[in-house]
Amino acid sequence: MADLNPFQILNRRLGLLRQRTRVLGVSKILFWTVGSGALATASCLLLFAAYPPSLNAQYGLLGSLLAFCCFNLIIQTIRLFSETASLEQTAQRWERHQTDLKDGLIASVYFDAAIRTDSLDGDTDTAHSLAHWVVNKTDGIKPSIIAPINELYRPFSALVGSLCLTIGLVWIYPDKFETALAELTRTNDGLKMESGPLVADITLTVDSPEYTGVQRRIIPNSTGNVSVYRGSKITIHATPLTKADQVFVFVGDERFDATSFQDNKAELSIVAMDSMDWRFGLQTESGERRIETQVRRLTIKPDKPPHIELITPRTDLELEKISAVPIEFSARDDFGISRIAVRLALANDEDNITRVEQDGHSGKIAKGADEIDLNIMDAQPGDRIALSVEVYDNRTIDGPQLSVSETRYITVRSPEFEHYKITEALNALLEQLLDALASRLEMDYDAVDGSRLAGKIDVLSNQTSRVLERLASIIDRMEKDPMSAEQAIAGLKSRHQVASQAQLAESSELSKEKARTQTGTIGDVGVFKALNEGVVSPLEQLIIYVESVVAQQGLADIAAMTEEIKAAKVRLKDLMTAYKKKPSDALKARIMRNIRRLKDRMRALQKRMASLRKKLPDEFLNIDGMKSGEVSQGLSDTRKQLDNLEKMMAENRLDDALKALDEMSETLDQLSSALDQDLQELHEQTNPALQKALSELMDQTRDLMKQQEELNEETEAQSRREQEQQADIFNKLLNEQIDELLRKAANLKKNAEKLQSGPLPTFAEESAADVNERVDELIQALKNKRLEAALRSARDALSPLYTVKRYARFRNPSSKDVSNSANQAIEQDQDIIDQLDTLMKQAQKQMQAAKQQSQTSSTREKQDQLRQAARQLQQKMESQQGQITGLKGEPMQSMDSAQKSMQRASQSLQKGQPGHAVPSQSEAVSQLKKLMNGLKQASKPQQGGKDGQKGQRDGGRDTKRDKVRIPGADEHDAPAEFRQELMDAMKDKAPNDFKESVKRYYESLVK
Predict the structure, then answer these.
(1) Does residue 284 share a domain with residue 408?
(2) Cis peptide preceding 400, ω within 30 of 0
(3) How many Å apart are CA 967 and CA 1007, to the nearest integer?
């Protein structure tokens, strides 16, 4: 730039401005031309659709429009380039923008041209000086400032507006544009467009779809414009205005020829599926094909979806337990209802729907009511269920339309929900108890003036009173909660009572002191220091006790939730096995619903675990499973397995899904084992004496169970020997008479067949068939030498034989043969019964003789000894019920049942019936195993539930509710001298910023 003279610099700048001016100018021309051309084209197409000219006229008009747009574009472009051809014109534009140049730029352009042509009439230095001045004035002025881009705003806005208007017209009149474009693009070789109608006397016959119930409609002298329902059949009758060989119609782009054309009258049929235009066409006798430009409109009437209203329930519901939910609904449709169903689904899984069909509804209006049993979808406590009603109309074209009512949500309350809220309330109460304790420990009675001391004591007393009132409210809730342990409730009550009495004593003494002094000044500070100490001690015990309850109850609840998940897993496997045998959509939906319910339960379990780890002190969680992360890892693994299981079921990979379920079982077992071990360790650390007592009871139960199992095996062996003797006796007796019995049975079979083939009343035919069936069983039992079965079959045949004999008299005389056959069969059957009965008596005598020779006294004596040992164990358990609360309920019931079973076994052995004693002995073993399990549960921490109750969750399913022992007050007493030392150390106050740290420090010292 430094090597250029000023005139060259100015020429370069003007050249850049000219280039930018031309680009902007061409853009403006394009915007205006395209916008106006698009709008004009759309207007022409609308005009063609409304008043269609000939095809040539349409092509001519559109061609002229296109030619005009192109011509205008070329002319305007030439004009633009001519106006910017010289630098003088560009300089004039610059001067208009930068008026302070005062024609200096234009003069410089002229001087440059004159200097180059040696025609300058003036001083050259003056011209260069002017050019330098102009260069300096134009420095920093860019072409984009003189010709800004916003010059395109108006033409661009016009283009956008035109395009939007064009698009709007296409959106409002799509059919007209479709018709016009179809006309332009159709290859109508040989078709001649006629501006007038080609036919007259148009009659339309409309047959609506059968489902609408609309009668046939005949429209004479029609213009061809008609509104019908989708799927209607339209029969068109028309008379051509000229002689024609063929008549046809164009419906959209599709051609339909006349199905009948006689005496210059045409008949055509079309099925209306969409709204569109149509027109007539014909072929003349000379072969010329014509099509009318007049457009006739076929419009589809809307068939609205059905309407459904859920009347009852009006609002969302909350149920205390799983029960039937009353519903009421009302539905209507223009033409009729085909189906109504109630929809049930989990709120977080509304894709898997269980439907309860509401039969018997049809017509245009339907109202109904029902009681929906939530068990149909395997509802469980804690579920949030979405309930709605769906209705289908009776449309047969494209299938029925569906409408769904608004959704009501039903929440089934879960016992653990309130139980967990109580635990959270106890946890929150700990903070308030610690605040109350910290305030009392910080109180320096000697440092406060007597006139202000009364107010401070009053504040302390009120703070403690409020905390104790909250605790009383929580205890009331726990008493109503079936999952809260009575032992915990009793412990909280006793400690609350002690603390309340101490606080009331302090409050009462303060009131007396105020009344005595009249001024509110405390006289004897020592009295209130002692009263404060009397409140601090029970508060310490209460804090430790509440933390112990929350810690053990939290772990126990987590263990119980794990057992629930294991039980749900077993049900899930049963469902998947059933689905593998017989797949169905309903069963698959139920499986997916249970998987998602399991996932929700796992999320709740993880949340519960996180809350427990976050809120409780480390000493309550310093146990193997929690410390090593086994429990958390087990939860994480199970959730991943559930995700994989859900994916496999969605893909119908049943074998893989069942395998994954087995792997999940192993993970859950490991998780349950880790939790049980943690609870057991926690419990053993609190009460070793209790563990010793329970261990002795389990040892005695184990010995008793082993001895009963051995005696059971001995009795079974004795019973088998007796059965073998009985079989030998039966075989020996039957071998002597089997041939004779089989011959008699064969004769009986012949008469039985005559009964079934003879004329009988309809109501007697079943009895005849029954006779044949019993006789077949008799023959088979004889062949197998089963004496008792043969006798039973023979006796069973008598009743239907007498029935046939009695009913045979209702037939005509030809039934006499049937009656005779029945009499003969009765005699034959009775003969067989007598013979078999005699054999049975002989067998019984021989068996009795064999029994007299057997020795059952030894087994009877052993059974009596075991029964006596069981009675002694029961007495010991009864004496320890006060010490071991877990012995109540099922363990005692199992012990009692075992004793009764032993007694029945002893009685059977006394009668010489070892076979009858075996089931009773097996039942005794089973009850002793239940007792052993009960003792194992009693050795674990209490997991909630009142004494004598077993926790019931999820609609009555049994889950583990182990007993957690809450430590007694004497196990957590802080020594008096230690507390005194602690209080003395509190004389010096900490800064306010350390209040929270001090409170935590108090807590750790108290523990």
Answers:
(1) no
(2) no
(3) 14
pLDDT in tens, 502-524: 889 888 888 887 777 666 677 67
Q: Is residue 499 in some structural domain?
A: yes
pLDDT 10s digits, 736-779: 677 788 888 888 888 888 877 777 666 667 788 888 888 898 88
Regarding whether 208 and 295 lie in a shared domain, the answer is: yes
* Pairing, β 365-373 against β 244-251: unpaired
* Residue 235 per-residue DSSP state: E
453 within domain boundaries: yes
Token digits for 689?
Answer: 């004496």
Quote the CA–CA distance of 541 and 524 in Å, as a whole number: 28
127 falls within a domain: yes
Q: What are the backbone angles phi and psi of residue 417, rounded to the nearest 5°?
A: -60, -50
Residue 968 has pLDDT above 60, yes or no: no
- Kindly give, in sequence order, each residue whose CB lies less than 8 Å from that of residue 605, ignoring residues fewer than 6 positions away: 558, 561, 562, 565, 635
pLDDT of residue 372: 87
- Pairing of β 384-393 and β 952-953: unpaired
Phi, psi of 337, deg, nearest 5: -110, 135
Mark whether 677 and 690 lie in a shared domain.
no
Residues 826 and 750 in one domain: yes
Q: What is the CATH classification number for the domain harbouring 764?
A: 1.20.120
Section 892-903 average pLDDT: 86
Per-residue pLDDT of 435-493, as tens digits, reads: 888 888 888 877 777 667 888 888 888 999 999 999 999 999 888 888 787 777 888 88
Task: Work out the number of other CB atoms within 10 angstroms of the CB of residue 941.
Answer: 27
Type of residue at 808: A
> What is the four-CA torsion angle of 320, 322, 326, 329, rounded to 10 degrees?
110
Length of the chain: 1007
Structure tokens at 681: 């360790």
801/750 same-domain check: yes
CA distance 857 to 863: 10
> How many Å apart are CA 820 and CA 828, to the nearest integer?
12
* Number of C-beta neighbours around residue 154 at 10 A: 12
Last residue of a domain, one of 170, 200, 225: 170
> What is the spatial distance between Cα 907 and Cα 912, in angstroms, rounded to a whole number?
9
Residues 395 and 514 in one domain: no
Share of the chain above pLDDT 90, in %: 14
The DSSP annotation for 173-186 comes to SHHHHHHHHHHHHS
Rounded distance between C-alpha atoms, residue 797 and residue 781, angstroms: 14
Measure the CA–CA gap between 378 and 578, rounded to whole angstroms.
Answer: 15
Residues 479, 351, single domain; the answer is no
Distances (CA, A) of 291 to 54, 191, 236, 727: 10, 7, 17, 103
Q: Which domain range does residue 406 map to?
A: 323-413
Tokens encoding 966: 């809450």
Whether residue 734 has pLDDT greater than 80: no
Determine the Cα–Cα distance for residues 268 and 236; give it in Å rounded to an integer. 5
For residue 390, count other CB atoms closer than 10 A to its CB: 19
Nearest to 913 by CA among 842, 864, 847: 847
Residues 920 and 792 occupy one common structural domain: no
> CB burial class (10 A; 0-12, 13-18, 19+) of residue 89?
middle
Residue 220: CATH number of its domain = 2.60.40.10
Handedness of CA 19, 21, 24, 30 (dihedral sign): negative
pLDDT tens digits for range 391-445? 999 999 889 999 999 999 998 877 777 777 888 888 888 888 888 888 888 888 7
Q: Residue 861 falls within a domain, yes or no?
A: yes
Mark which of 853, 879, 913 sits at the end of a domain. 853
Domain count, the chain: 7
Q: How far apart are the first and last CA of the chain?
A: 89
| CB-neighbour burial class of residue 105 (10 A; exposed 0-12, middle 13-18, buried 19+) | buried
pLDDT tops 90 at residue 43: no
